[in-house]
Amino acid sequence: MAIEVSDSAREWIKRKGGVATVRLSPRHGCCGGGADIAVAEARPPDDPACYTGVEFEGLSLYLDPTLVGQGLRVDVAGFLGMGHLFVEGVSPTRS
Amino acid sequence: MTAHQESQSPSTSEGMGLFERFLSVWVALAIVAGVLLGQFAPAVPETLSRFEYAQVSIPVAVLIWAMIFPMMAQIDFTAILGVRRQPRGLIITTTVNWLIKPFTMFAIAWFFLTVVFAPLIPAERASQYLAGAILLGAAPCTAMVFVWSYLTRGDAAYTLVQVALNDLIMLFAFAPIVVFLLGVSNIQVPWDTVALSVVLYIVIPLTAGYLTRRALIARHGSEWYDNVFMKRIGPVTPMGLIVTLVLLFAFQGEVILEAPLHIVLIAIPLILQTFLIFFIAYGWAKAWKVPHNVAAPGAMIGASNFFELAVAAAIALFGLQSGAALATVVGVLVEVPLMLALVRIANKTRHHFPETETKATAEARG
After folding, report:
1. CA distance B238 to chain A (A)
2. Which among A29, A83, A91 has CB closest to B156?
3. B269-292 pLDDT, tens digit each
4. Which of B7, B278, B292 is nearest to B155 (CA)?
5. Minimum CA–CA partner of B357 in chain A
6. Rounded to an integer, what distance in angstroms lies between the CA atom of residue B117 and that of residue B125?
7. Candidates 3.30.1360.40, 1.20.1530.20, 3.30.160.20, 2.60.120.260; correct CATH number of B14-365?
8. What ipTM describes this predicted complex?
9. DSSP 3-state of A86
10. What residues of A are in the B interface, CB distance below 8 Å?
11. Average pLDDT across chain A, whole number
């Protein structure tokens, strides 16, 4: 399986339109260097052609090709009606 | 750790580019360049020091904002919503960062700088170095931790949450801790000066970073923000750091030439403190059976410092010529070799920790 999505994350994404993008977000170190952190957002990507599309339990997921097959899991956390998607199972990388 | 597991961790050359791997060399070169500038072209720093407004040096303020703003602009504060994830890692790192680290830094620096090295450092100078150490101890790592997390195969989601939480706490805790510990050390700094430096070098860049992030993501999207905007402004921080160091040492030339040994003497308590804090957090994580991908970055966050903030606060509170500013720079000088040694320790002791979340930690998360 390319990806696992928790029940709560699936509901959250469905409420936001049923589309999610899982991509790498570069973070810069203050003394130089950096790492790419996997992030998930409940929205379609800027350019779907750059992503691997997966239809998964009623969701349209777009995965960064480098993240496919890494056994990652998308979960949601939050409180007071606010939520934030998190990607588990993948360490920071460097492109 | 098996050979297979060890090979899973990225090598230093893989994880860090030329600049950051040899940061100590560039900092040392910046010290030499600054000293030469101060000795052979003193008109340059003298002219720059004349541009002041409300006793704030404008060139220094611009350089400091250049260092800090990009780091603040990349913080995703919505990650704070994940504060209930990995609660043990968050409890350990937050406690170590804010309730232990500032005080052990003060104790170790006080003991070495004012007691052990008393015959080698004049008392007034020693108390300035102590002030610099206090500033370092109260400013936890905010950005390099992503590099340390990468090198130890850390949990990316935990790292994001911990950084956002730290920066939020820093907004409120940095000034009171600094004022308290400076007061204990009999170093008098007016509250309004501390408040001004917090507003100038934490509140303004953090607010500007947050508003910039929100506005640009709303207009251009998060992919553009990360891959275009941050890619352009991210490298400004290390460049700003090096230029600030050149300027700082243009004013510090006399001290360096008269007492180069002071750099080594300042480095000793800073190195001991880094190892102590790492082992407190790492040992605590092991006792609580925290998975390695949380324990390692958590201990790294505690051990490392937000040097740009410490340098900025030292300059704002005590001036470019101060011993406090010099002490914060020594922190930058030793950072990378020290942190890479901790990365190696973390990777070699991986087998002492659960690789993935245990049932106990899962239950704690609910």
Report:
1. 5
2. A91
3. 999 999 999 999 999 999 999 999
4. B292
5. A89
6. 11
7. 1.20.1530.20
8. 0.89
9. strand
10. 23, 25-35, 37-39, 41, 45-46, 75, 77-79, 82-84, 86-88, 90-94
11. 87
